Task: inverse folding
């Protein structure tokens, strides 16, 4: 297989406060290859966004980041602040959750779209403008020659997200990071945006990391899936592994909580309880307090290791729970 | 744009008309007879009646008001009870002193507040930020006349660098004009600077927490460029309003400071006119101040539309 565009090894992010040390990301590793899509799934506070922010050098002030991150084979940790900033701007594109707020309201969209090219490729004046028109055209914005001088408030939500995508693709990045990129959009627009990203990915061979809590989106676009909970990866595998034979009780519970088309239900299934608070993580398995299986004392006191149960399918549990029932792994 | 300005000017005229009515009626409620006060010890009934007749004070109120408004429209604001000079001339004469004081104070305040507020926000929580917050707290809490008195004691009394008070016109001697202007305008400016610093700091902090700033960081822009291109312009939009309101209120005359520094501006004029019950002058001064306020606000609205593409003024 080709060299991964982004690989992270044993990534951890922690914050120190008066209430103690909060480990919001702990021992995360995954990689994403050219043309491939990795979906990072989890509830709010599971550390999925923080993983990617820390990996690209955008973690908030006060965050302590550990582990190794390689972008195109180069160790980001060994770079200076300036080199890291350049590498990010040159090779990574970001699409954010809310297109209403992620664009600067007082700058024409064209300038925002090519700003990264100005900074990193030295694109200026008419060149920058025609590149902006080209990018807007590529993401399907009608009459881009006129729209390039418009301000964000003159666009609808879906069109703004297209602008953000054009902006992310300005430098032909090898990696596109979409952080809940369709969450703020209505379902129809969401489908259009997903389709757009998929077709662009096919055309440009970009690797995509898609952060989401929406399993429907994951099923639609992902090759690989990493399920995160309490700052850790609980399960990691191909989309077939995750949807076909989920190995972790949490993944199973998540899948069971999806609304089923054609099935009338008065109430959707939920996972009782709430995700753990980062500085009060349980000593054993992070999911133990909410786990429907609740194996034994070991789950409460000892953190299960991430174990490979099939080639490319890793699960962090003592109790592998295939569809047929609960089965004790051989140890 | 032209239509917007014309509409706003028409609206301003209506507001000014309202101002004249309110001031006119308020003055009728104030106890004390201006003609009596003007005559003082030289009082005798005949002169008194003649003066009231001449000033039109014996006519019914609505007639007096309509007469006043009618004359005001052609620039005649009546004559001072005290000096007999035309009010229009008196208030216009006082304008340069107040305008100089106000503009100088606001420019000084912006020069201080802008860098302080910006650094304080960008280096949030640093020693610079703490020092800045102490300064602005001090400036907001300490009354301006106290600072003025301290200034006079130190710079005029002890050091002898600056004149303690008074005014020299620019045409007469620009350097003296500047020296006289320095202390009162810095005194007023410090208070304004304190207010603006706090405001700029919070406005920049607010802008820095916006999603589009994260977007800019994601693009790998230089941190300085993130601030100048994305933070500043957004942060400055609300600052413009506050700075303009400060300027407008200073243009109305800073009564205490003008009295303290014997500054011949509108504030001092208003103060003297109240003391002397010189109603025409008081009316004229209030009218001019209101007009200045409206003008500054109109300018702000035009500027707003220039700064913020979301606001259209057509």
Result:
């Amino acid at each position: 297989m080709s060299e991964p565009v982004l690989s992270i090894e044993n990534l951890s992010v922690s914050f120190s406060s008066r209430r103690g040390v909060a480990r919001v990301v702990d021992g995360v590793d995954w990689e994403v290859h050219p043309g491939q899509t990795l979906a990072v799934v989890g509830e709010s506070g599971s550390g999925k966004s923080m993983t990617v922010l820390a990996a690209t050098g955008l973690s908030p002030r006060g965050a302590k980041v550990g582990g190794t991150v390689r972008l195109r084979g180069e160790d980001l940790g060994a770079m200076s602040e300036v080199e890291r900033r350049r590498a990010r701007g040159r090779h990574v594109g970001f699409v954010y959750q809310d297109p209403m707020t992620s664009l600067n309201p007082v700058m024409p969209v064209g300038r925002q779209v090519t700003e990264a090219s100005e900074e990193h490729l030295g694109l200026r004046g008419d060149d920058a403008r025609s590149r902006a028109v080209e990018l807007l055209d590529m993401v399907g914005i009608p009459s881009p020659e006129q729209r390039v001088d418009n301000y964000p408030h003159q666009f609808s939500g879906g069109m703004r997200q297209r602008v953000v995508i054009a902006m992310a693709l300005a430098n032909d990045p090898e990696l596109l990071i979409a952080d809940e990129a369709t969450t703020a959009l209505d379902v129809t627009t969401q489908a259009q945006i997903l389709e757009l990203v998929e077709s662009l990915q096919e055309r440009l061979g970009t690797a995509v990391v898609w952060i989401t809590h929406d399993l429907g989106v994951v099923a639609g676009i992902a090759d690989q899936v990493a399920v995160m909970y309490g700052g850790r990866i609980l399960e990691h595998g191909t989309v077939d592994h995750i949807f076909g034979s989920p190995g972790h009780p949490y993944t199973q519970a998540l899948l069971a909580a999806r609304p089923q088309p054609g099935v009338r239900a008065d109430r959707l299934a939920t996972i009782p309880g709430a995700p753990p608070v980062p500085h009060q993580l349980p000593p054993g398995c992070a999911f133990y307090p909410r786990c429907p299986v609740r194996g034994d004392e070991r789950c409460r006191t000892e953190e299960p290791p991430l174990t490979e149960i099939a080639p490319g399918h890793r699960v962090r549990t003592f109790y592998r729970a295939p569809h047929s029932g609960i089965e004790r792994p051989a140890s | 744009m032209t239509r917007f300005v014309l509409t706003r000017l028409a609206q301003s005229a209506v507001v000014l008309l309202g101002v004249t009515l309110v001031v006119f009626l308020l003055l009728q409620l104030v106890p004390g007879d201006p003609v009596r006060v003007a005559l003082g010890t030289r009082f005798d009934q005949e002169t008194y009646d003649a003066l009231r007749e001449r000033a039109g004070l014996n006519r019914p109120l609505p007639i007096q008001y309509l007469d006043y408004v009618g004359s005001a429209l052609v620039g005649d604001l009546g004559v001072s009870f005290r000096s007999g000079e035309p009010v229009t001339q008196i208030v216009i004469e006082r304008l340069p002193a107040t305008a100089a004081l106000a503009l100088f104070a606001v420019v000084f305040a912006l020069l201080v507040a802008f860098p302080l507020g910006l650094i304080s926000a960008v280096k949030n929580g640093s020693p610079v930020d703490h020092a800045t917050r102490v300064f602005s707290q001090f400036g907001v809490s300490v009354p301006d006349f106290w600072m003025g008195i301290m200034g006079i004691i130190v710079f005029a009394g002890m050091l002898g660098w600056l004149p303690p008070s008074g005014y020299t016109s620019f045409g007469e001697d620009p350097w003296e004009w500047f020296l006289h202007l320095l202390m009162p305008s810095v005194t007023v400016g410090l208070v304004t600077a304190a207010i603006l610093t706090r405001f700029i700091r919070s406005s920049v902090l607010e802008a820095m927490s916006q999603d589009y700033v994260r977007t800019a960081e994601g693009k790998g822009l230089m941190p300085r460029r993130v601030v100048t291109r994305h933070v500043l312009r957004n942060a400055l939009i609300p600052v413009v309003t506050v700075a303009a309101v400060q300027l407008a209120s200073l243009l109305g005359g800073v009564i205490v400071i003008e009295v303290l520094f014997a500054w011949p501006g509108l504030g001092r004029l208003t103060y003297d006119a109240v003391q002397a019950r010189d109603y025409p002058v008081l009316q004229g001064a209030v009218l001019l101040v209101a007009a200045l306020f409206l003008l500054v606000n109109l300018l702000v609205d035009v500027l707003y539309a220039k700064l913020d593409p979301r606001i259209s003024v057509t």
Observations:
- The domain at 6-260+268-315 of chain A is CATH 3.40.50.300 (Rossmann fold).
- The two ends of chain A are 31 Å apart (CA to CA).
- Residues 115 and 167 of chain A are 8 Å apart (CA to CA).
